[in-house]
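Form 12-C: Joint structure prediction
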Amino acid sequence: MEKSVLVIYTGGTIGMVNDPATGVLCPFNFDQISLEVPEIREFDFNIDNYTLPELIDSSDLRPALWVDLCRIILDNRARYHGFVILHGTDTMAYSASALSFMLEHLDKPVIFTGSQLPIGKIRTDGKENLLAAIEIAAASDNGKPLVPEVCILFGDRLFRGNRATKINAESFDAFQSFNYPPLAEIGIHVHYNRAAILPPPLLPPVARAGLDTRVAILKIFPGLGADIVAAILSVPGLRGVILETYGSGNAPTRADFLDAICAAVARGIFIYNVTQCAGGSVETGRYATGRGLHEAGVINGRDITTEAALCKMMHVLGRGLPPDDTRRLLDSNLRGEISIAK
Ligand code: ASP
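Section 2 - Result
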């Protein structure tokens, strides 16, 4: 098979150019990519593109797009060595996390990238990001893809998608992965951190397209009323909650707060303890304030990001498993999103 990469364009800043007639920014025609990014011709492999019918600012993202992306990737899997997804930065960490869970036993690189400045602007970061993403999507060793994972490439680093977070609205280094090292550093050469990259899967890929979006994120803050907690936890149909706690997974010890949490767990709602800190991990046994949640039946999210926790919750609930299996999956490392052995 001749080497080729499929670039899937979903929208976002990266795909914007100035309309020559009006001067305003508008989405770029990907069929003319080599006019905008002539360097692309220097790759010695084929690059195809697929533009989604509706280009979006990623703030308008809905989970249906994740289902479409999984289908496009699996339908085209035999034809391409890797995939690049051009996506707005605002929700890129959610999309990369979601696809990491939805594409089980993924054996090809799926590299999300975007940019802070449109590709048609003179100082754009979009060209470098696009070119590096294509190079990494095509990279192989003995015929096997070097990075068979869903990743985010931004600036000079490649991150595991479900470990990355958008941390800056202006800088060209817009993403960071606080709890897991970069999978590659991009300079004159691309240095792969092979020890950090997931091994190729043993089974053929499958799409886990079922997602349950009846979930919520509840961030604890000083002064949060137990009535508000109880009201959120009693939303009809609610199935899962990401509880953003302090530090190493701590929360108020007040009885009314813990009672509301206990009652929700008893009603079958899955609650995941995720720290508000950018780096570090939940350790439920460390303080009495964390033990209360543990005893109430809250599941330890360890060092997972909020974005990955939310997508993991949607994915695991969407599998429609019995409660014990749902709990077990939430408590385990599925795609390298938390730091415990598989
Ligand atoms: N609002 C834009 C989006 O997320 C920003 C970007 O593309 O980076 O689609």
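Section 3 - Comments
The pocket of aspartic acid is lined by residues 12-13, 57-59, 88-90, 114 (CB under 6 Å). The radius of gyration is 21 Å.
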